[in-house]
Specification:
Growth Hormone, Chain: A
Length: 392
């Protein structure tokens, strides 16, 4: 049998890992436990800072000590996260939850794909890697939709807390299957003297970005739009509640928001053959600016149309920015460059969160979205002039 059973175990792990109905009513549950929008933003900042601190070290630990160990740690922390949330009543409870969630996210980031690839490589089937990853992502979609639809139904009939107990149960199943994974054997350099010093990766990356200002602009556009769409992902529940939309429709809306980004992801490679990168990025930024302005000013059901526009546009940016980066870098620096991109986005998310939290506390959620609109508008103007000779 070899390592091929790992693939089926990963399918089961991913299905239950995403079968989390609690996410549909997460922010409403937090508000019910006394969390204000500003407090939630503080937890987002804690999450971002923790990701920045642990993302690269966790990748090193996965390579040195084994990918299975990091996946087990991620699933275990996921169980702790929901167990704490069931009984959480104070800010520090929620802060602890997002801290553990960030460590768990960092622990699994990269480790899962590495274990999958090494499992296929050990059987001489590494050419099927992309196909398996595609099917795993499709399974993610199915489990997320099931969780969203069931979560909204259960919350409307049985209250918020039941969803958290179900989510805890799903994480326990995921943890149990993770223990059954087999650690593939791969060739690694154990002598630190034979590997490049850590400082070399940093200095080489900095020199590369300095010599490619156009690339920096494209990546910055991805960071700005990524940070902006994050506030849709995190606060759409409160937005819908302010519009007096019943919670039973939350699952349907959650599923719709997820699906709206799929066309952009799928068609991005075709769009770049029709339009220039500059035109696409300007169009995306303009769409986000207009959408957030509408959401902040027009406080009725028509704001949902603005959310649709934002999600459709945001779906294009991730493959565009990632492709623009990877087409220009050497394979030996691919992971390091990706880490720098993640680092920049999390720093930007942190500072954006401070402004969003302040204006939400003053003008409710609509003021927070107004702040995001101003941020996107300012970047649109900057990119319009700065990219003229740098981005084609």
């Amino acid at each position: 049998m070899g390592y091929l059973p790992n693939i089926w175990k990963l399918f089961v792990i991913r299905f239950f890992y995403n079968l989390i109905p609690a996410y549909v009513i997460e922010r409403l549950f937090w508000e019910d436990r006394g969390m204000t929008i500003q407090m939630v933003v503080y937890t987002e900042i804690i999450f971002a800072f923790t990701i920045v601190l642990f993302e690269v070290p966790s990748g090193i630990m996965a390579d040195k000590w084994g990918r299975k160990h990091m996946l087990v740690l991620s699933a275990l922390l996921g169980c702790c996260e929901f167990l704490i949330l069931v009984f959480a009543t104070e800010f520090w409870h929620f802060a602890l939850v997002v801290f553990l969630a960030a460590i768990g996210h960092s622990a699994s980031s990269g480790a899962e794909d590495a274990l999958l690839y090494d499992s296929l490589l050990a059987e001489g089937k590494e050419k099927h890697f992309e196909k398996i990853i595609g099917r795993l992502n499709a399974l993610d979609t199915i489990s997320i939709i099931i969780a969203a639809l069931c979560g909204s139904f259960l919350a409307s009939h049985f209250g918020y807390e039941l969803n958290y107990w179900i989510s805890l149960g799903a994480m326990v199943v995921s943890l149990g299957v993770t223990f059954l994974l087999a650690e593939p054997v791969w060739n690694s350099i154990e002598d630190d003297e034979e590997s490049l010093p850590f400082k070399t990766y940093i200095t080489s990356s900095v020199r590369f970005f300095k010599s490619n200002p156009g690339l920096c602009l494209v990546l910055l556009s991805g960071m700005v739009t990524g940070a902006a769409i994050n506030f849709i992902d995190e606060f759409w529940q409160i937005y819908l509640e302010r519009l007096n939309i019943p919670v039973i429709y939350f699952g349907l809306f959650s599923a719709a928001v997820f699906f709206l980004r799929l066309p952009g992801n799928v068609l991005a490679y075709k769009l770049k053959n029709v339009f220039s990168y500059r035109a696409l990025l300007l169009g995306i930024t303009a769409a986000l600016t207009a959408g957030f302005i509408y959401m902040s000013v027009i406080k009725d059901f028509s704001g949902l149309a603005a959310v649709i526009v934002i999600c459709l546009a945001a779906g294009i940016i991730e493959p565009l920015a990632a492709g623009y980066l990877h087409h220009q870098i050497d394979s030996s620096m691919r992971a390091t460059m990706g880490s720098f991109q993640s680092l920049g986005e999390n720093f930007l998310l942190t500072f954006t969160g401070l402004g969003f939290g302040y204006y939400s506390s003053q003008l409710d959620i609509f003021g927070g979205f107004g702040f995001i609109a101003v941020l996107c508008g300012m970047f649109f103007v900057y990119f319009l002039f700065a990219s003229k000779k740098l981005v084609e």
